[in-house]
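Reading group handout, session on sequence-to-structure problems. Before we discuss, look at one worked example. The prompt was deliberately terse, the way you'd type it at a terminal:

> structure Protein N-acetyltransferase, RimJ/RimL family

The input record follows.
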Amino acid sequence: MRHWPLLSLRLTTPRLELRLPGLDDLDALADRAAEGVHDPGEMPFGEPWTDAPPHERARSTVQIHFRQWGTWSPGNWACSFVTVWEGQVAGVQEMRAVDFAVTREVTTGSWLGQRFQGRGIGTEMRAAVLHLAFTGLGARYATSSAFVDNTKSLAVSRRLGYREDGLAVEKRRGEAALQQRLRLSRDEWTTPDGFEIHGLEPCLPLFGASDGITDAGGAP
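And the output record:
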């Protein structure tokens, strides 16, 4: 689509493909949300969207993508890729930024359907968007955060080289909860082998990165 080239942007890794979802992808992603993302006794998200009944989780999963597309601007964007493993939509890997042209900083967030967890997919899909950020867009920093009891997310960040960047207190299910902030610089990042970016060049202005780096280990 000439006027919305993001639909042709793809990230590939040895096992995964990340892409902006089409309607069929959104249906499959909604199914993952309805099936479950975490144990009911846990809450890894500040906004407890997974406390809703399955049909509401499914609908809100579709709606958030429509909202992100409708409000996208070069100065404030959220790019949510569906992660595809062995032909199945497994979850979401998001990267977002405000005033990226100035800050050159992105923030990431993600979730996986429960039956896809424990396979290393979370680490690989985060690495894919870090490759996009640092190599494709020319970011200087990537940040992330997780509640201190979300050991799986924190383990992914540490495995990828993030450093601790302070603590914050946030509301979770009506109570105060401690969150660990993390930061990774471009100088500390090395892209693993087999990671490629496809269809990036026409998307650069939409990211506020017209001077980004397009020699990204794949077709621009």
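Points for discussion. First: Confidence is low (pLDDT under 50) at residues 214-220. Second: Residues 54-71 form the longest helix (18 residues).
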